[in-house]
Structure formats: structure tokens, C-alpha cells
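Q: Entry one of two.
A:
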Amino acid sequence: MEDTSFEIYSGETFGLIGETGCGKSVTALSALRLIPDPPGKIISGEIIFKDKDLLKKTDIEMQKVRGNEISMIFQEPMTALNPVFKIGNQISEVILLHEPDDEIKNNYNLSNVYYICDEKYENIE
């Protein structure tokens, strides 16, 4: 990809559309720094989010951004969830990773998420 540029303002939802193979996923994965280096490499430019360059953030700092402040809906739904792990665990993982307040985490009542998902999809274990 060369010369990719766009601006997304606070409160906006952004959709990136285009033909198959044109680089939509590569662009989004690169912005979230999810493309391994190598084979991928960002050779120049910057990705500014909340006045900070995401390219200068550590991996730990990026984990706090991904899913909490910037999210991507992957185009292949069958690869979004890992069939090896229970669905309830995968859904609740987002809350557990991004909610700093233990009291708020407890109020989500994650046991209900596990119960509903595991009961509905008990055949996938």
C-alpha cells in the first residue's frame, strides 16, 4: 500500500470499502499494528490517534487501544472466534482486558455471559 491517508473525527464511525484484494484489511490491520514485521513493514508516515502516534506506542500500550478505543470488524466472521475456546470466554475477554475498575467488571455479571453462550453452543466444545 502506498500513500494511504484518511481522517476520522471524534464520534464518527468509519467504513473502509473497496474491491476484493485492494488493501482494506491490510490498511486496518496496519493501523492497529497487527501485521507482523516481517513480512509487513510501515516504512514512513504516522498514525495519529488522540494526538499520539500509534507507531511509537509499545505493544503493551497498543493492547490498551485495540478493542477499547479502536476496533475492527473482520470481514470473515468464521475467523473472528476461535472454536478451540468457549464463546463466553472470548466475549467476556474484552471486558476483562479493557475495564480497569474491578467493581465495574463484577457488575457485568460475566457468569451470565458464560452460561448463555455455553448453553446455546454446547455442541462446539
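Q: Entry two of two.
A:
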Amino acid sequence: MSQQPAHKSIYKLAAVLFTLAAAWCLLPAQIGGSNVILSSAAISQPTFSAPAASTILTFTLGVTDARGLAAPSLAEVVVSVIQSYVRVYLPLLVRDYSPPITFPVRITDAIPVRPVAYQGEVFYVASLRMPSQLPPDGHFYFSSQQDALAPVVVDDALFILLDETEVSSYTFSTSSEPPEPAIVEVGRGTMEQLVGRTVTIEYRDVYDIVVAASEMWLVWMP
């Protein structure tokens, strides 16, 4: 809380954000209370002239990263006019903020080669929460690097399941050939089914020899 004489009625909104590895754009916008004019709607600390009477001003702060993923937050600014003083209560506009799930999505570290326990063994299972929004363009791949497109391999097959139903799979081996590393794309149609959902990733043996897998990420590439 701060106290200032009424004639100095220029006040500042302040947004506190966690540092992320992305370029942020802050878009404060008033949605309730008396109309005020912000000095800028595209900076983290715009100023405004307080109304003459006590009021509550409600603003939104929209946080958008470089890939278009947004996380809006609501906050109230209480302006109280008491005799010759104006009291302004400035809230923290971003409360309990956690970054949205975004790309790349980590699947697992590399799994070293070992003999298969039995034919058809499911030797790795992971439940993953998928991002709640997709970039509007680009492609999605399984990659052995989080920041570049690189081939992956599973001995023998990779499956994506949603509610225990297979939605995508890729087999790296054949009955007569060992597994070959490959660039594996996940189609946009499949990704749209998975948005915001929890999916299961499974690695399975097929040919009853050995099991292994490379490091694995689900990445987006423009």
C-alpha cells in the first residue's frame, strides 16, 4: 500500500514474471471499473491517472511467448480516495503462475541394450501431459535432441496411446533387419487429438532379441 497527495494521481501497474527461456509480450487490458487510459498496453509497468472517486479497477495481464502460447491472469487494483490522499493497493498480477507445458516434451533418456525378457515385452512406459496449445504452423517429431531434429530409434517399436487406445505407432525393425534410426513425424491431426491430454508412451519388443532406445523428445519445428 502506498500513500500520496491526491494531486499526484499517476499510478503504476506492476507485473512480476518468472524468467523463462522465451521472449514475453505483456498485454495488460482493463475489463472493469471506471475507464482509465494506460500509458502503454504493451509494457509490464504501464501508468494511469487515478479516477477522482474511490473505485475498483479490474485488469487482465496476458502473457504470450514467442510461439503464441498465452496464459491470462485477472487482478483488481483498488483505488481509495480518503480526504486529501489517494490510496492505491497494487496486487501481484501473476499469482502462483506456472509456465504452460510447451515444446520440447521430454520422453526419456537413452535405454541401453539388454536381452529381451520375453517376446513382446513392453520395456518402457511413460505418462505425459501434452501441451494445451499447439503452434499454428510447423511440424512435430520425435527427436533424440531437444533443440534440433535428430533421428531416434527404439528396438523394436514406439506406441502412443490415449485412453488405452493406440493413436500412433512406428516400428524401427523388420524380422530380418536390426532397427534403423529414423526421423519420426507425428501428424498435426494426431497432435490435435492429444492437445491438453495425458498420453501413454510405450516401447515394445517385437522380434524377441534385445531391447534398447535412444534419448527421446517430442519437438516442434517451424
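A: Comment on entry two: The chain has one helix and 18 strands. Residues 2-89 form a domain with the Immunoglobulin-like fold (CATH 2.60.40.10).
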